[in-house]
# Entry
Amino acid sequence: MNRILYLWGSLLFMAFTQNTNAQHKLQGKVMDANGKYPLQEVAVMVENTILGTNTDAQGNFEIPNVSFPLNLKISHVGYETITLSLKEAPKDFVVRLTEQPHELEEIVVVSFEGSKKLKETPAAISSIGQRDISRYNLTSPQQALNTLPGIKLESTTLGRYSLKIRGGNLGAIGHADGYKTYWNGIPISLATGNIPLGQLDFGSIGSMNIVRGPSGSIYGAGLSGVALLENRKPLYKQTSFQTDFLGASYGTYRYGATFATSGQNSDLHLQYSKLHTDGYRNEAASDNEFINLNARFFPSEKQSLSLITQYVDRNYGIPGNLSAEQVVENPRQSTFSRELDNGLRGKSLLVGAGHTYRFNNRWENSTSFSYQVYEGDFLIGNDFFMVADRSITTAFSARTATTYRFDGFFGKENRLVFGGEYTRGINDVNEFSNGFQSPIISARTSTDRSFLGFSQLEMVLPEEFTLTLGASYNNFRLDFEERLVELDNPRFSKEVNDFSPRIALTKKINDVFFVYANISKSFSPPPRGAFDNNGTQLNFDLESTKGWNKELGIRGTTFKNRLSFDAVFYRLDVKDVILPRIASNIGGVELVMNENAGAIDRQGIELRTEYFLVKNSQQFLSRASVFGSYTYMDHKFETYNTVEINENGETNEINFDKKNIPGIHPHTLVVGTDIVTKPGLYFNGTFSYYDKVYLNNANTITDNPYRLFDAKLGFKKTLTKDFFFDVFVGGNNILGDTYSATHQYNSSFGAYYDPAPGRNFYSGASLRYIF
# Structure
C-alpha cells in the first residue's frame, strides 16, 4: 500500500512539475518607434486567451503563466497594431510601435525637444502623416501641405518650391523671414535658415510637423516657423520590398523602389526614386533623382542611434514670369531663350547622425550633427541679358539638448531642457560674363555662422495648468570676400546678437479640450543677398528683422471623439524689416538699396477641423470623414516709404503705410473628404478656394481668386499576408480654373505671372511584398 501511495505521489509530482515548467513569465517593454520614450497604457494580449495587461508609466509589462508558442497582440491608440509570433520568452524584449494616428486625439508630435499629444502642445503646429500623404500622388508635397491652415507651398515645376508659412518668405518683401528644418531631430538648415524642399524626396517622408510662427525660441532664428520632418518607419519585425510607378500629364512620371527591414535592435529604410516632368510651360522641364538611407540602432533600452544619408541629383528649368498680355498670347511660353539650357543643375549630399541616451528616468541627452555639400550651375538668359554662376556650398550643423525631469512644488513631474546648436556654411560662387565658357567676372565667398544657446522649463501647475518658459541667445556672423570685382570693401564681416524669450500657458479644460496662450520673440538675420545692392555697393548697417508673436489657441475633440478642431488667433508685429528703397536713377536704371526700412503687422485666424462620419473596420463603408481648414490673413505695412527718382534727379516720395502686403491671400478655404471601404475601394477629394492677391506695394494690381478641385480614386488590397497592392487614378485642377502658380511682386516690366497647368491627370500603382 505504501508503495502504491509513493508511486501515485511521484506521478502527481512529476505532472505538477511538468505543468509548472510549461508556464512562463513574459516580460518586455513597449517604446515609440523613434526609441526616445516609452509608451504607457499599451494593451498587450495573448491571442485566443484572457491573458494580457497594459504597460506602466515606463512602458514595461509582465504577463505570468503563459505557454509557448503564442501570438502576442500589441495595440495602442494612434499606433500601428502588431501581432508577434513567439516560440519562447525573448530576452531583453523591447517592442517599438510605429505611429499611425487618424485624428487629433491620437496625434503625437515630437517638438520642443519632447513628445506629447498635439492637443496638449502650446503652439500652433500643422501636422500631416501617412494618411494625409497617401491622399495625393508622391510627385510633390504641394497638395498635402496646402490643406493646412497658414501654409502655402508654391511651385513653378517639380523640385522648385517656395514654402510660405503665415505669408512669410516673400523674397524682396521682407527678405528672409524664413524657417528652420530638422530631419529626424537632426538640424539640416543652413546658418541663414531654410533648406530647399526640392532636395527632399516626398516619398521618403513619414510625417511633417510645422510650427507656424516664431513659437520656437528653442530653435533660434526663424520668424516664419520650424519644419520638423520624420522619415517613413519600417513596421516592427517586418522586411519588405516596395515598388511604385506613376504617370501623369505633361510627360510626368515617378518611379520608386524601397527596401525596409526592422528588428528588435535596428531598422533600415533604403529608397531610390526618379521624378521627371516635361513641364507645363516651355523651359520648365525637371529631372530629380533621390537616394535615401535612414537607419536606426537600439543598442539598449537606454540609447538609440539614428543615421541619415541622402544623395540628390536635381535639374529644373526656369521659364520666367509673363506679363498679362503674354499670358493671353501664350501662357506656356518662356521669357528666356530656348537655345540656352536655362535653369538650375545641381547635386547634393547630406549625411547626419543623432544619438539619444537615457541615463535614468530623470536625465536624457540627445546630440546630433549633419554635413551637407552642394555643387550647382545656374543659368538664365535672353537677347537682353544673361546670368551664369557656378557655386559650391558646404554646411555643418551640430545640436545637443539635455532633458532633466524632476518633481515640482505641486507633486507633478516638471521638465527642464537646455542645450546649444552650431551651424557653419561656406558658399563659393563664380559668376561668368556670358555663359560658362566665358571669363569669370566675379568670385565671392560668404561664410555664415550661427550659434544658439537655449533653455526651456515646463512646469505643471494646479488646476490643470502647464507653464512653459523658454529663451535662447543667438549669435550670427557673416563674412564676405570678393576676389575679382573692385569694391570699396572687398572684405567685410557682420555680426548680430539676439535674445528670444518665450512664455506659454496651457489649460486643460477636460480630457478632450485644451486652451493655450503663447507669447514669443524671434528674429531673422540679414541674408547674404540683402547686403548686395545692384552688385556694386554693400550695405554694412543691416540688422536682424525682429518680431513679437502673440497667439491664442483652442484644440479638442467632441461628439465621442468624432469631431476634432484646432483654432488659432495670432498677431505678429515685425520691426526692422529689410526692404528695398530707391536711392538714385542713372540713365533710367534705378539703384536700389536694401535697408531696415519698415515694419509689418501680421494678424490672422487659422482653423482646422475634421469629422468622422463612419469609423468601423467591420462595415462595408469602413471609414468616411470630411475635413476643412480656413485661413484669414490681414498683413499690412505699418510703416514703409521710399521715393521715385526720374532721370533728371527729381524725387517723389511714396508712402505704403497701411497697404496690404503683396502675395497674401486674405481668405483661403480648403474642404475635403476621405471614403474607404472594407473591400479596398477608396476616394479622396479636395476643394480649395484662394482669394485675390495684391501684386505690388501700392495695391493697384491684383490677381483674381481661383478654385481648385483635386480627386483620387483607388483600390488597395492585401492579396495574401505577404503581398499588397494599390492602384489609383486622379486629377488636379479638374475645374480647369486659370491661375498663376507663383508671382513676381513689384515687377518693373509687368511680368507678374507664372501660369499654372489646367486640367491634368495621373494614374499609378504600388506593390509591396513582405518577406
